[in-house]
Structures are given as C-alpha cells and as structure tokens.
Amino acid sequence: MVLPTITMEMKTIHMKMLIDGEWVVSNDNEKLKKYNPVDGKLLGLFLAVKKVDIDRAVDAADRMF
Question: Which burial class, exposed, middle or buried, applies to 55 when counting CB atoms under 10 A from its CB (0-12, 13-18, 19+)?
C-alpha cells in the first residue's frame, strides 16, 4: 500500500481567541511550536492557552446564560 504524500506550508496567521464576542490574544501571548512526528518539520505555531484564558472564556459563557 502506498500512502499519499502530503505537503504543507507554514503560513503566518493572526492567533486570537473568540471570548465574549471579541477576538483577543491569550493572557501572555505565548506560542507553541508543533512538529510533524513523521519528518520533524515545523507544522505551525499555536496559542498556548493557559488556565487564566480558559477561566475568562468560561466566565464570559456563564454571563450569557
């Protein structure tokens, strides 16, 4: 069986979270690098969401109900 080759390009995107109807950055704006486990190439950067960010989102959701 031959598996398909997947080619991925890393793109720069603005990383924000939708909390309380607004696009916001994480508390410390820290990024995590994720790598392809097969070839070790960088797949991209992702927000390192912390407990304070989750609490902020949960509080906003609670206010809506």
Answer: exposed
- Where do the domains of the chain lie? 17-64
Task: Give the dihedral sign, CA 37/43/46/48.
Answer: positive
Higher pLDDT, 57 or 45: 57
Q: Which residue is listed with tokens 């508390």?
A: 27
Which is nearest to 48 in space by CA: 27, 32, 36? 32
For residue 15, the one-letter residue type is: M
3-state SS class at 18:
strand
pTM beyond 0.70: the answer is: no
- Alpha carbon dihedral 19, 24, 26, 27, in 10-degree steps, equals -90
